[in-house]
Every structure is written in C-alpha cells, then in structure tokens.
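Bump. Still looking for Ig-like domain-containing protein structure tokens.
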Amino acid sequence: MKEGREGSIHLCLSLLLGSLMGGVGAGTGLYMGPYFPTPQPRNITVHQNTVAYLPCTVKQLGDKTVSWVRRRDADILTVDKYTFVRDERLTVHFTPESDTWTLVIKYVQERDAGTYECQISTEPKMSMFVHLNVIVPQVEVSGAADKYVRSGSSARLECTVSSTVQLPDYIFWYHSGDRLLEYDHPRIKISVSRRGGQGSEMSVTSTLIISNARPSDAGNYTCLPSNLHNATTVLHVLNDEHPAAMHTGRGAAADPLPVWGVVVVVCLVLLVSRSPREERVTLHLPHVLDTEGGGREGDKERRAGRDVPRAASGRVDTHASLTAAGERRSGAGRGGAGWGGAGLISLRAVTLEKCMGGQNSDFLPHLLKDLQKSPLQDRPLGTPASRFL
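Sorry for the wait, here they are.
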C-alpha cells in the first residue's frame, strides 16, 4: 500500500514537471501560432520627399512569411526580406529584437498615400492595415515676386513654411546661388519664428533683413527648407536718381506722365486727321505759328493771296488771323452756318501753337474742357478761338 502511494505521487510530480516544461516550449501555452501584438501604429503621416516607415510586428511567426501589399492596386511589394517591385524606393527592414517588419518608402510622393496591408501567410490570411498620409507643405516668400527698395534703406524678406506637421531642420537663404551666412555678411540678420503646437499643423517663418542696401545686394533671393522645395523672389535696389516704383509700386515722377501722354496724342491727332476742306487752311499753319516770317512763309502768304496780321512785337496775331480766316472761308458774315472748316482749323491751329510753344501744362485743362462742350458746328462763325480755350 505504501509503495502504491509513492508511485502515485511520483507520477503526479512527473506530469506536473512535464506540463511546466511543455509550457515553456509553447511560448503562449494555449495558442502557438503567429499573431499581431497590440498596440501598433495604424496611421503614419509624413512630408513629401521624406522617408516613410511603416512598422509591422509579428510574434510567434514560426515557418510563416510576412508580406507587404499595397491595397490600391493589390500589388505584392515585399515577401520576407525580398522586394517584388521595381521601385527602388521601396525596401523592407527586419528587426529581430522586436520581430518587426518595416516597409521603408524613400522620397515619398503624394501618389504613395493610401492603405498598406501587412499580411501573414496563414490559412486563412492574417492582416494588419497601416494608412499612410502624405502632406505637401507650402513654401512661399511673402509679398510680390519683385521687391523694390531704395539704396541705403533696409530690405526685409520673409519665407514661410505652412501646412506642416514637422518643423524643417533648417531654412537656408541664398543670394544668386550663394548661401548667406551672418558671420560672412555683417549687414544681414536671419531669424526664425514658428506658430502652432506639436501634433497640429504648424508654420515656421524665416526672416532675412538686409541693412543699408546697396546695388550689389540686388538679385534673386531663395529660401530652401530641409527636404522641401524652395521659393524665390527678386530684389531691386534703386539709386536716388531713379526713385520710381518703390514697395507701393508708385513713383514720385509717375503723376505727370499721363498729362504729357495726352498732350502728345492730341498733337499727333491734330496733325494727321485733317479733312479735305481743311487742307488749304492747314497748309498755311506755319504762317500762323511762325514768329519770324519771310522766306518760304512769305511766298506761301503771297500765293494764298492774303495778309497775315502781326502784332507790334513781330509775332503773328493768332487771334486776328484765325478770325479773319474763318470769315473769308465762310463768306457768310458772322452767321452760324459757316463754321465747318475754318473755325475747326482755327481751333486746331491754336492747339498746335500751344503744343509747339511749350505751354502744355496751362493749355491742357482748357483743351479737355473745350472738347466736352457742344459740337463745333453749333458755334458762331468768327468767334475768337480764345473763347473756347
């Protein structure tokens, strides 16, 4: 009886010891197949042109394999440590310490965004999905593409990187291809500021200040953040003798230009656009405008069969000449029916005399006012041209 009891105890101890030893070999005891431990990252967000790492940890893999599949087109990208696509940007990295299979995508582009499947070759297949988000940060130099400053003043350029979840490691400034360093250029200062907190969209601004700007400071300025595209602006440094078009785009000498432009156009129109009825009188405009007389002008006067009144100073009496021309042309006294050619050419002759006599600034307001009046044919014949100017 005593020997039977000892045998039972020995059997129980043997079974208990075997059970313990078997448990160590099994790993988890009950389930001995592969599985995905939790938690694991399921959403990865990266910037364009950076490197994306998509991890997949698999425990108790045994003799099974791990594959990465792109859900968009069902392409098998990798199986174990082998890559099955010709895209050299894609590789897989295995970390034995953590049993992690990481899909690596270099120089990420927007087209790489989407869902990727980490698949275990069990029956049925076991899968874990990881979604990749690709953000394209915006890089721009604030203000117009062309910037203007006076020589001796300060120029301020700002480069902003927005829509970013990761701050760039650096933002470099280049002038015409050469990198700007503060210790090499005592007149420049570069500062960086940022907005937004970690985990949300942030923006960072690099400010370049150039003191006592010189003509040699003009040219292209480019800001280049790390792993992002660049942005460029053009700086123009104006000397004191050329003050036009500063930051506002409006120069001190810009206002008179429209006035002179109108005067030139009016003079050209009056010279070119004359009717056949006015041709005879127009040929004698040099007599009206000439201050010396004689020579060819005198011959023209004699051929025309008329006298050109002159003032006591020797200058042509424009008022009298134009009035007389209008009366002779109409042959109708001072009635209102004859103001067609002579009266019109009289007004044009005075206009030409004003333009050629250097009285543009005083004459132009009157000319514009005259052009807004009633039609010429409604004006009485022989009315002095000075009344309409």
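The chain has three domains: 43-135, 138-238, 266-388.

Edit: fixed formatting.
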